[in-house]
Amino acid sequence: MTQFWSAATKGLSPYIPGEQPRVPDLIKLNTNEHALTPSPRALKAIANESPDALRRYPDPNATSLVTAIAELEGLSPENVFVGNGSDEILAHTFQGLLTSAEELVTPDITYSFYPVWASLYGMQHHKVPLKQDFSVDVDGLCHTNGAVLLANPNAPTGMTVELSELERLISSKPERLVVIDEAYFGFGAASAVQLLGSHQNLLLTRSLSKSHALAGLRVGYALGPGDLIEGLRRIKDSFNSYPLDALAQVGAEAALRDTDWLSDASRLIIENRVFVSEKLEGLGFSVCPSQANFLFAQHPNVSGKVLFEGLRERNILVRRWDYPRIDNYLRITIGTKDQCMMLVEALSEMV
Ligand SMILES: *Cc1c(COP(=O)(O)O)cnc(C)c1O
Which of 74, 108, 176, 295 is most buried, judged by most C-beta within 10 A? Predict the structure, then answer.
């Protein structure tokens, strides 16, 4: 009975996540999940959690996890906020912080959830076009006045803005908030965490979904100045006291403390990324330089749509958008070495 929908509900155009089909033997390279299984230490911590920990409510402040993140990042717990995936944290960031600005500023091509939140939280959205080569137009962003939200590395291009350029953006207008979405932290890009000490208008969000192979656990975190973090807490405590369940709290902490797992796993993804990138270029594709666990590529002779469908027939699922400027591109998650070889083999039959 849509008569009970509010005007706001009627006006929404919700985000459409990548498909999660339950097809056996499907090579699933469409949602940037990690190629490996998570840290064994994280799995053990989850398995060892006591029945009592499930009988009780979890720690609403996830104190142990927050303290661990602070320690690992050289920050204090007042600078750390955790949430049910970075999507939840970004939603709280809109409601609690970004809406203090006149408008939201993002690149035109970026994570397609941003315009959905802008609309949900009633913000004007100013889009600054990426340059011809899909790099972020930092000057263009500097010249705007609204609050900036930037994925770095950007999605779906995988391309990164250098730290010195980020700093130029952050310091160009200290009175405006800059939120950097580091969902693809860990795959080679420098983090803006080292800029936090000297800037009061900077907030970072991160996710365990990509870097730590824990998309199913739903854990993300934000790093920033104490008053921004406190703003997020005020929203969280007015929304859901327990966004992270007991298993997520212990699993995430063990995963983050297993820094050897992260460096080994990231090295493997980077190796596979270089392998696929070189093979695709050999087949004539142009490939964006990526520092994420995916590649964004197009072929001069065969359309993105035809390639997408050809891969699908061969049981390989990638992601593609019918958006201006990028409708010819495929976004391909970096899988295991075997998956990468099968992908390259399939594409070589089509171009
Ligand atoms: C995957 C992704 C997210 C969401 O991550 P979760 O922590 O799983 O909610 C946020 N931003 C970008 C750019 C992403 O690609």
Answer: 295
